[in-house]
Every structure is written in structure tokens, then in C-alpha cells.
Amino acid sequence: MAETEPRVGExxxxxxxxxxxxxxxxxxxxxxxxxxxxxxxxxxxxxxxxVHKTTVYRRWPSKAELIADAVRVHSAEHVPIPDTGSLxxxxxxxxxSVIANICSDDGSRRSRAIxxxxxxSPDLTASMNSFWAERFAMSVPIIERAVQRGELPPDSDADxxxxxxxxxxxxxxxxTGEPIDDDLAHRVAxxxxxxxxxxxxx
Amino acid sequence: MAETEPRVGExxxxxxxxxxxxxxxxxxxxxxxxxxxxxxxxxxxxxxxxVHKTTVYRRWPSKAELIADAVRVHSAEHVPIPDTGSLxxxxxxxxxSVIANICSDDGSRRSRAIxxxxxxSPDLTASMNSFWAERFAMSVPIIERAVQRGELPPDSDADxxxxxxxxxxxxxxxxTGEPIDDDLAHRVAxxxxxxxxxxxxx
Lengths: 202, 202
Description:
Two copies of one chain form a homodimer. By secondary structure, the first copy, chain A, is mainly alpha-helical. Chain A has two domains: 15-69, Homeodomain-like (Arc Repressor Mutant, subunit A, Orthogonal Bundle), CATH 1.10.10; 80-201, Tetracycline Repressor, domain 2. Helix content of chain A is 73%, strand content 0%. The first copy, chain A, contains nine helices and no strands. The first copy, chain A, has helices spanning 16-35, 42-49, 53-59, 63-78, 87-103, 105-120, 122-148, 158-176, 182-199. Chains A and B meet through helix 6, helix 7, helix 8 and helix 9 of A and helix 6, helix 7, helix 8 and helix 9 of B.
């Protein structure tokens, strides 16, 4: 049916395919948070989402792919890649939305559930590694634009700069449990921007 | 018996208390890695270590305390706090031993098992948060010595500097799965040392 197969490039935000995707990925996140990775199946996801299981299997052949896609959609919505016009502004905005997500009840529960699952399920680890590598790659333009503006030299290590920005937030969230506030976004962005700039002045 | 109760300050590396502690904590780590946090009991630890269970309960009232202590001993052995005489040297040495530990088969398995357990067991989360806060506090002298040498100003944010150093290593280990090599220790130490120095020159 044409209804279920929108043409490429056609905007169908309320289309059936979009609704199915949303409810399948939402069901996946709920089951992961409620039960943990080992305790639910792709069939449970189909049943919770109210769709036929072949609909799920056709698009997502495994639980790991369901979870990676759920995380992908959540991140795209909650942690956009900023373009504020300056390196410091971009780093601060990115750290700020990572913090806002990780400190929200929903974002915190999702993140913990995924880390717990990925840490002991090798098949999920691979999918999550791909997701994270993709997310970090999406942040690389922040550094490229800073290079174009002359704020940073061409040989800047984009991956390292982004990891040094995000790393301290995850260290607090996962390891020390220390409070994470908006002030952290400001301080970590300042430290990393200063380091990236100064490293290159040598 | 005096044999089991060495006086405070007395060095008894081969004493019975030390041997018991070592075998109990080793049994704890093995069971955690083999079975996961939910699947073993304090009694299992006693049995694996070959000691009476009251010996274990007297010193470690819960699994969470056993695990936190096992991690504490492992870290003290494998990730010493350096004192090389310079900020860059110390940061590089600390990042280097975190990397060496996390990249070893044993260190990698331990770290994953603990993260997986802490992410879904609130009682363990609290013990592990204390352990990590303690570890980070142990690194603060690196920054204090740099302040005394005039490398950094007195208002340097020691916690943030250490977290920015360690964070990117954990990001690679837990999130992106990208290769971690000794070169990373050098690069992250340089970025963070430059940032900490430059931030304060404003």
C-alpha cells in the first residue's frame, strides 16, 4: 500500500511508517529500562508496540539494533549539534545539552540501562560502539568550523577535543556520582577550548 | 590470637589477616566477573576463598563493600598516583597507568563487570561512587603540587582537571570502543595541561 511506503524525500511526519517506528522504539526503551537487556525479546517489543512481529524483524533484525536505533532517535532529539558561531559557544552548548539529557529522569534511566546492558552483552557492545562513534563524528563539524574561523589550527584532534568535553560529564554520571550542574558545562568548555587553542600555539 | 591481629602500623605482608583479605577480595572479583553481581552471595565468596563466612561478614557486611574493597586494592596496585616533578609528567603518567590497566585483559574484564553491576544495582552504585570519589581525591595532590611549583594558580579546579584527563579514556573504553594506546596518554595530558594553564592566564 502506498500508505505504508512513502516516497523517498517525502515528508510524512504523521505517516504510518513513522508512527510504527516511534512506537516500536519507545517500546524497546521501556522494556530495556523495566527489565534489562537479557529479560525481553523482539517479540515482546512487537507486542508492547501493538504491531506484528514481522514488521519489527523486517526493519530491526535484533534487539541490539532496536536499542541502537532507539538511542539514536533519542539523542538526535535531545542532544542537537550546536552551531553558535564560536568554539567556546559550541562546546558549552553541546556540554549543556548532554548534561540536560543525562540529568533528566528519563535520560538518566535510559543511559544507565544502556550502559549496564552494553557492559555485559558483547552483541550490544558492538552496536553501541557504532552509535557512539557516529555521535562523536557528528560533533566533528564543531571543530572543523573553528578551524575555518581560524580559532584552531588545521591539525586539531577533533575526536580528542570532543571526548575531553564529554568525558568529565560521564565520569561524574557513571563513576563518582558527584552533582552535575550547568556550571560544569561552562567550566569544562572553557578548560577544553583553552587547551585546544593553547596546544596549537606551540 | 595475636597472629590474626597485627598492631596498627606493623608491616605484616605475609600475615594471616593479609592472606585472608587477599583471597577474599580475589574470590569476590572472580565471582563478579564470572557470574555478575546478582548471581553470587557473600557465602559464595567465603566458600571460594576457603574461609568461614563469619570471617567475611565481620569485615565486609555486604557484597557492595566486598566489591568496593576489591576495586580499591586493585587500583592502588595498578594505578599509583605519580609524582614526576611536573604537571605534564604527572598527568601523562596517571593517564598512562589508567590506560595500561583498562587495556589489560584482567583490568578490562574487571572494569566492565563493575560498571555493568553498578549501573543496575543502586546499593553497589553508592559504594562505587565513594570509591571513585576517593580515587579522584587521591589525585588532587598532583594539582596541589603544580600550584606549589607555580605551574597552576591556586584556584585551579583539581577535580575538573583530573576528570578531563581520565574522561576521554573512559569514553573510548565504555562508549565508542575506539582503540586506546599510549599515544592517547600523551595527547590527553598535553590538552588538559595546556587548558589548565591557559584558563588561569586570563
